[in-house]
Amino acid sequence: MPPTRLSSPPASTAVSSAAELPPPGGLCAIHQPNLFPRLTTLAKLFAADYWIVLDNVQFTRRDYQHRTCLATLGDPRRRQWLTIPTHLPHGRQTTVREAVLADPDRSRRRVAGMLVQYYSASPHWPVL
Hints:
The protein is an alpha+beta fold. The protein has two helices and six strands, in the order βαβββββα.
Protein backbone atom coordinates (compact mmCIF):
# COMPACT_ATOMS: atom_id res chain seq x y z
CA MET A 1 0.00 0.00 0.00
CA PRO A 2 1.49 3.38 -0.96
CA PRO A 3 2.13 5.92 1.79
CA THR A 4 -0.62 8.47 2.22
CA ARG A 5 -0.70 12.10 3.26
CA LEU A 6 -3.39 13.70 5.42
CA SER A 7 -4.91 15.16 2.26
CA SER A 8 -4.94 11.80 0.44
CA PRO A 9 -8.24 10.05 -0.19
CA PRO A 10 -8.72 6.91 1.91
CA ALA A 11 -7.33 3.72 0.39
CA SER A 12 -10.43 1.91 1.63
CA THR A 13 -14.16 2.34 1.21
CA ALA A 14 -14.22 3.35 4.88
CA VAL A 15 -13.96 7.08 5.45
CA SER A 16 -12.89 9.23 8.35
CA SER A 17 -15.76 9.99 10.70
CA ALA A 18 -14.21 13.24 11.90
CA ALA A 19 -14.91 16.46 10.02
CA GLU A 20 -11.29 17.47 10.57
CA LEU A 21 -8.33 15.27 11.32
CA PRO A 22 -6.47 15.88 14.60
CA PRO A 23 -3.05 17.53 14.43
CA PRO A 24 -0.07 15.29 13.57
CA GLY A 25 1.62 13.49 16.43
CA GLY A 26 -1.39 11.94 18.12
CA LEU A 27 -1.94 8.32 19.10
CA CYS A 28 -2.73 6.05 16.15
CA ALA A 29 -4.58 2.73 16.53
CA ILE A 30 -4.77 0.14 13.76
CA HIS A 31 -7.05 -2.86 13.90
CA GLN A 32 -8.65 -5.39 11.58
CA PRO A 33 -12.44 -5.23 11.48
CA ASN A 34 -14.35 -7.74 13.63
CA LEU A 35 -18.03 -8.66 13.63
CA PHE A 36 -18.41 -7.58 17.28
CA PRO A 37 -15.26 -5.86 18.54
CA ARG A 38 -14.05 -6.83 22.00
CA LEU A 39 -14.05 -4.29 24.81
CA THR A 40 -10.26 -4.00 24.56
CA THR A 41 -10.62 -3.01 20.90
CA LEU A 42 -13.24 -0.41 21.78
CA ALA A 43 -10.95 0.95 24.52
CA LYS A 44 -8.14 1.22 21.96
CA LEU A 45 -10.49 3.14 19.64
CA PHE A 46 -11.58 5.45 22.43
CA ALA A 47 -7.98 6.26 23.42
CA ALA A 48 -6.74 6.91 19.88
CA ASP A 49 -6.54 10.21 18.02
CA TYR A 50 -6.36 8.34 14.71
CA TRP A 51 -8.16 5.09 13.90
CA ILE A 52 -7.14 3.02 10.88
CA VAL A 53 -9.16 0.04 9.72
CA LEU A 54 -6.71 -2.56 8.42
CA ASP A 55 -8.78 -4.13 5.66
CA ASN A 56 -6.15 -4.88 3.02
CA VAL A 57 -4.97 -8.08 4.77
CA GLN A 58 -5.99 -11.67 4.17
CA PHE A 59 -9.48 -12.62 5.36
CA THR A 60 -9.17 -15.45 7.89
CA ARG A 61 -12.05 -17.86 8.24
CA ARG A 62 -11.09 -18.94 11.76
CA ASP A 63 -10.87 -15.43 13.15
CA TYR A 64 -13.41 -12.89 14.42
CA GLN A 65 -13.81 -10.96 11.17
CA HIS A 66 -17.13 -12.65 10.36
CA ARG A 67 -17.98 -14.47 13.59
CA THR A 68 -18.24 -14.00 17.34
CA CYS A 69 -18.91 -16.11 20.38
CA LEU A 70 -22.07 -15.20 22.32
CA ALA A 71 -22.50 -16.13 25.98
CA THR A 72 -25.83 -16.24 27.80
CA LEU A 73 -26.49 -13.79 30.61
CA GLY A 74 -27.35 -16.47 33.15
CA ASP A 75 -24.42 -18.77 32.42
CA PRO A 76 -21.39 -17.19 30.69
CA ARG A 77 -19.90 -20.69 30.22
CA ARG A 78 -22.77 -21.55 27.86
CA ARG A 79 -21.63 -20.15 24.53
CA GLN A 80 -22.60 -20.35 20.90
CA TRP A 81 -20.84 -19.15 17.78
CA LEU A 82 -22.58 -16.59 15.61
CA THR A 83 -21.12 -16.76 12.11
CA ILE A 84 -22.02 -14.62 9.11
CA PRO A 85 -21.66 -16.64 5.87
CA THR A 86 -19.20 -14.98 3.51
CA HIS A 87 -18.13 -15.44 -0.09
CA LEU A 88 -14.41 -15.11 -0.81
CA PRO A 89 -14.06 -14.33 -4.53
CA HIS A 90 -10.30 -15.05 -4.56
CA GLY A 91 -10.35 -18.03 -2.21
CA ARG A 92 -7.81 -17.96 0.61
CA GLN A 93 -6.08 -14.93 -0.95
CA THR A 94 -9.19 -12.73 -0.53
CA THR A 95 -8.58 -9.61 1.54
CA VAL A 96 -10.97 -8.40 4.23
CA ARG A 97 -12.26 -5.60 1.99
CA GLU A 98 -12.98 -8.06 -0.85
CA ALA A 99 -15.06 -10.47 1.27
CA VAL A 100 -18.79 -10.34 0.55
CA LEU A 101 -21.72 -11.38 2.72
CA ALA A 102 -23.23 -14.50 1.14
CA ASP A 103 -26.83 -13.61 2.10
CA PRO A 104 -27.12 -10.17 3.74
CA ASP A 105 -30.86 -10.37 4.50
CA ARG A 106 -30.59 -13.78 6.15
CA SER A 107 -27.49 -12.67 8.07
CA ARG A 108 -29.31 -9.58 9.36
CA ARG A 109 -32.24 -11.71 10.58
CA ARG A 110 -29.94 -14.28 12.20
CA VAL A 111 -27.88 -11.68 14.08
CA ALA A 112 -31.01 -9.86 15.28
CA GLY A 113 -32.65 -13.13 16.34
CA MET A 114 -29.64 -14.38 18.28
CA LEU A 115 -29.16 -11.05 20.03
CA VAL A 116 -32.79 -11.13 21.14
CA GLN A 117 -32.46 -14.76 22.24
CA TYR A 118 -29.30 -14.17 24.28
CA TYR A 119 -29.68 -10.65 25.62
CA SER A 120 -33.33 -9.49 25.67
CA ALA A 121 -33.54 -10.33 29.40
CA SER A 122 -30.81 -7.78 30.16
CA PRO A 123 -31.91 -4.63 31.98
CA HIS A 124 -30.03 -2.67 29.28
CA TRP A 125 -31.94 -4.27 26.38
CA PRO A 126 -34.38 -1.33 25.92
CA VAL A 127 -31.43 0.99 25.23
CA LEU A 128 -30.15 -1.37 22.54
